[in-house]
Amino acid sequence: MIELVVFDMAGTTVDENNVVYKTVRQAINAAGYNFTQEQVQSAGAGKEKSQAIRDVLALDGNDHPDTEVQSIFADFRRRLAEAYDTLDVTEQPGASETFRELHSRGIKVVLNTGYDRPTAEKLVHKIGWVVGQDFDALVTASDVETGRPGPDMIYLAMALTQVTDASAVVKIGDSRIDIEEGQNANCGMALGITTGAQPENELLQSNPTAVIHHLRDLLQLVDQTSQLSR
Record's InterPro entries (predicted)? Predict the structure, then answer.
């Protein structure tokens, strides 16, 4: 029986026109590089953003000191704050409806993200969601010691919702690292979704339970699992 679904934010439940990874690329290339958008999303999707920058830089095969990473990260945060001030952020199609349907089944809903808490809260506010009303909790990369693909954010989500059995948890996200996070937490299902950073062929490389194409597709999988557990 599924008790909790942990959703990624950008690309999964939040539509922000891919501004985060576009901004990661802008900040890195402003420091003298020439990475493509595809490279940035392949290496950085779903990760805490300073780690994403570090992993993109590593693609050139050179050593990059932490001071360089942190300088680019600071520039990224400045650029992202400016972008979010004017960006029209919306939910991904069907997100609120899916949350309501899960709640009607007695299933908790948590959002988790590679953003820091101030950025995540800004996104939630722009959409108009309310923690404790539209979903049950928000867990961000700045709330834990180790980000994705480590399981810490999912463990915190379970603690906040009083779910003790990881096999009763579903993790869903639009990047391979989301899937790997769910697997590392021993979730009952670790799902990919094709609405965001990485296409189906990339998501399948992490051997997800399934790849879906719309958030509402999740409900059928949850219902099938519930029927099998009876």
Answer: HAD-like_hydrolase_sf, HAD-like_sf, HAD_sf, PGP-like_dom2, PhnX-like
Cα 81-84-88 angle, rounded to 5 deg: 175
Token reading at 187: 């979730």
Q: CA dihedral defined by 45, 47, 50, 56, rounded to 10 degrees?
A: -40
Per-residue burial over 96-113, b = 16 or more CB atoms within 10 Å of its CB, e = otherwise: bebbebbeeeebbbbbbb
List b or e across 198-224, with b for residues whose CB sees 16 or more CB atoms inside 10 angstroms: beeebbeebebbebbeebebbbebbee
Amino acid at 95: A
Q: What is the pLDDT along the chain (230 residues), one digit of tens a residue?
A: 899 999 999 999 999 888 888 999 999 999 999 999 999 988 888 788 899 999 999 999 999 999 999 999 999 999 988 888 888 889 999 999 999 999 999 999 999 998 889 889 988 999 999 999 999 999 999 999 998 899 999 999 999 999 999 999 999 999 999 999 999 999 999 999 999 878 999 999 999 999 999 999 999 999 988 777 65
